[in-house]
Amino acid sequence: MRSSSRTTTRRAARSAAALLAGALTLSLAACGGDDDKDSPTEGASGGTETTATVRLPKLDGESLEVAAVWTGPEQANFKKVLAEFEKRTGAKVTFVPAQDPIINFLGSKIAGGQPPDVAMLPQPGAIRQAVEKGWAKPLGAEAQAELKKNFSQGWQDIGTVDGKPYGVYYKAANKSLIWYNTQVFENAGAEEPKTWEDLLSTAQTIYDSGVTPFSVGGADGWTLTDWFENVYLSQAGPEKYDQLAKHEIKWTDPSVKEALTTLAQIWGKQDYLAGGASGALQTEFPASVTQTFTGGDQPKAGMVYEGDFVQVNIAETDAKVGTDAKVFPFPSVGDTAPVVSGGDAAVILEDSKAAQALATFLASPDAATIQAGLGGYLSPNKNVDPKAYPNAVQQEMAKALIAAGDDFRFDMSDQAPQAFGGTPGKGEWKALQDFLKNPKDIAGTQRRLEADAAAAYGN
Predict the structure, then answer these.
(1) Where is the composition biased (Low complexity) (predicted)?
(2) pTM strictly above 0.85
């Protein structure tokens, strides 16, 4: 039975990866800038005009607070979604900027008697902790109905704890992408790699042309966990990935050693990283993107790894997605290319008619369609029309995400307790930052990871 399960899982992952690769190829061939004929029109809120598909109550005089760690364009775009909710209901919604780790931020707000009504939680582990602490409130009947109508079972399950739905996964992320400066690739005569060995060869070609191959946002430890997860999923396979995510195998397992050894083939080459390891550790994620797409054909780096949301940061430069900036799927390290996903879920902390109405709205196609039209966003809502997205790249990414159904693996660190997988300066974030600094210390990195994981998981 186990062998059959492994074969089925691998086939599913392989088909999802192939679908993603094909979608990206088609989208980039079709995308030529901002003149996409299928681009949505903008309404008064700055997003896509939508026809209401969900009924919302009148909430005149009601007020809500929504907390999230989002900043910059991501925050601004979400506020336009909240503005539409205000317009339809009469409620007043205030966005509360949160800090990582959001569980600690929420803890301080709750201790002070001022919890936000709704929080956007970026980790299933954080949802679980909020439930265990008695903070999270289950979704009501209306929100559950929208959830069942619009989301695959896999996305419903990620927001469920002990059989009760608590989270609406409003935002998804495809975290198996590498973005590149097309001028750099053309000048170097480099091609999009399909395998890890190809990626190493491409990196050397870029380096030989006089440009540093990779930009790494190592100041944000979560980017490093994403690197690891893609390598590990492809190399060790989905069964091992699930086991490590649940801490059913230890971080001292040989499969972890193999993945770290593979990562060191890039992280261990100072000349391959913009600013070397020390520079990477001082580079925050947004800067890791912008420095790849500024400076014409002589940027600080030719490639940057991260998810579809990179587009938000590319938009802050003069580069255009599909022409100056292109993307390829994270190359296969083992038999199959990885498909790692992430996301942010709306969780109710203060149960009220208004909070339940907002959760219902965020579970509907109406809310997601607005933010889809603003770019830099993907929704796991299967009833959002792909034409809502502003260009062919995002339209095909959205189609691939929905077509993959439940055949994906959620970000491993996001499944972990926050103390291990989601806290700056601690756990996996800190261990991988230390490993980036000293990629030769594989055994020591494994020991630290295991010690921190055992403490966080309580085993």
Answers:
(1) 41-53
(2) no
